[in-house]
């Protein structure tokens, strides 16, 4: 009953928000351009309002793409329009202010769509260097890690974007590739139908490629199938599992926090930490950094936050997570949270950019 109530409430709030934005847009169009096709406009707004959900349900990229842009209009519209409405009344309903404010919104959304699209589809490489005070016989005492999370492979993000990751990996030549979660975007069907496994198989590193699940890998109930798909191409998909790599260090891949039965980080490290080898943990959501530090982990790699993906959501993630993006050291533990290689929802990024992290680890 509570779930039904919350669902109905959310639908009502979303519907009223769409009405508010549509009403303001109609007023501006009708006064600025003498636009008179009211019924047509209502139909268009209604179709836009449901487009993201319809596109997501039927796996139609164009509809889902349009719906994502509409969600951005809704998000920024509900933040900016009340301010504009207030200033309009303060200006005593000045006609010029009304016209210019409308054009300002058009310019703003043009900037958001152009700049946000560039940030979303142009991944950058961020370089880090750390030192771990534990002995290992890794390559010349160093290990070059490529960290890429939140691929969100599905209807929108497919082989073309994935090839960019392959290109970066080929250029950087890491010793190991680590992918902490959200490999698929809820449903594995597009991944299989578009044969993305063939592109994933191009991700190669001398020490290996390791991954762990994220929340979106669970949502469609396809996590076990994903594990099989990845294992078939030589990617080690660790679900509360660990591997000792070349007798040099331990990689632990945690089940996502979505799984209420996942093991504690203390249990995983206590069970798998041998010979005092350095421990690298893949944990999709950066919720348990302190627990990892207390348990004795040396490195923890996460994603999930997307660094908010769209400003000002990054201000929220900064409050929710101890390390919502970038690098943080906590005693012996080195925490890295990437903004992610892919996207969820709108194919835009403002205040963040799709990225890959290259981490040079010096074992001493």
UniProtKB/TrEMBL annotation:
The chain crosses the membrane at residues 6-29, 41-63, 69-90, 97-118. This is Phosphoesterase. InterPro entries: Calcineurin-like_PHP (IPR004843), Metallo-depent_PP-like (IPR029052), Metallophosphoesterase_sf (IPR051158). Keywords: Membrane, Transmembrane, Transmembrane helix. Residues 143-307 form the Calcineurin-like phosphoesterase domain. Gene3D superfamilies: 3.60.21.10. GO terms for molecular function: hydrolase activity. PANTHER family: TRANSMEMBRANE PROTEIN WITH METALLOPHOSPHOESTERASE DOMAIN (PTHR31302:SF0), TRANSMEMBRANE PROTEIN WITH METALLOPHOSPHOESTERASE DOMAIN-RELATED (PTHR31302).
